[in-house]
Write a structure and sequence with these properties.
five-stranded antiparallel β-sheet; single chain; 28% helix; elongated; five-stranded parallel β-sheet; 8 helices; alpha/beta
Length: 259
């Protein structure tokens, strides 16, 4: 019988080590690697993991971000590992294979493993975050944003995936068929149009100021009127971005700028 290939994703080294010890005792399991969230998509796809013990809350890239970054055909069965109480994890209990609360004991991990084996024996696992991720994701991301707006973007760069929080974006610039995210002096290129990004961002925080730019309202420090109704926006880092007269009315409505 081919062992089940298991990956362990957690930002706590001691938690990863504890899970390794428990899982290694099962001859039907092969632990193919462990890592933190930001390195997880590459590990899962490279090692062809069929089962993942996945922490929910991790810096840079959380558990749901890991799942979103995977190709559909690479999605494994998932046992969530979380420090959140049972009330929080009920949001996805029926969709994930199982959840394990920290601090966990060996028996609880083995119970989750047994359930995962049953799921895998029935065939390909359903996507674990389908319909179940949203309630817990909302719990983990308490930021004040419009319903449906993204809290972060996942950007592939140099063989890894970088999680960019929307609140950290200064402004977005159109670059041919791509868009460039300007984040604190760093840039990230995304293969999305400005129109697509505009629909995914919180409209209360981000505004399209002209055809080729979207600006985070929190970064605007000065507004300089120009001729014929245009303006120049000066951002916190000194960057100057044009506000076209055709976008000015919407800008003033969101930003509260006096005419």
């Amino acid at each position: 019988m081919t062992p089940i290939r298991v990956a362990i994703i957690d930002d706590e080294p001691l938690a990863r080590a504890a899970l390794r010890v428990v899982l290694a005792a099962d001859p039907e399991v092969e632990v193919v690697g462990d890592c933190i969230g930001v390195d997880a998509p590459a590990l899962i796809e490279r090692a062809q993991a069929r089962l993942v013990f996945l922490d929910v809350q991790m810096p840079e890239l959380d558990g749901f971000g890991v799942l979103d970054a995977l190709r559909p055909e690479a999605l494994p069965a998932v046992v969530f590992v979380t420090a959140y109480d049972a009330h929080a994890v009920r949001a996805f209990d029926v969709h994930a294979v199982d959840y394990v609360l920290k601090p966990f004991d060996d028996a609880r991990v083995l119970t989750a493993l047994a359930r995962a084996k049953q799921r895998l024996a029935r065939g390909a696992p359903e996507r674990p975050d389908a319909g179940a991720g949203d309630p817990l994701l909302a719990l983990l991301n308490q930021a004040d944003r419009a319903p449906g707006a993204l809290s972060r973007f996942l950007v592939r760069t140099r063989g890894k995936i970088v999680a960019v929080r929307c609140e950290d974006i200064d402004w977005i610039e159109a670059t041919d068929y791509y868009a460039t995210l300007h984040v604190g002096g760093t840039t990230h290129l995304m293969r999305q149009t400005m129109a697509e990004l505009e629909t995914r961002l919180d409209p209360r925080r981000f505004v399209r100021v002209h055809r080729g730019a979207i600006v985070n309202l929190d970064r605007i420090r000065e507004i300089h009127p120009l001729f014929r109704g245009d303006c120049t926006l000066v951002l916190a880092d000194g960057t100057q971005v044009k506000l076209s007269r055709t976008r000015r009315a919407e800008f003033e409505r969101l930003f509260g700028t006096p005419r």
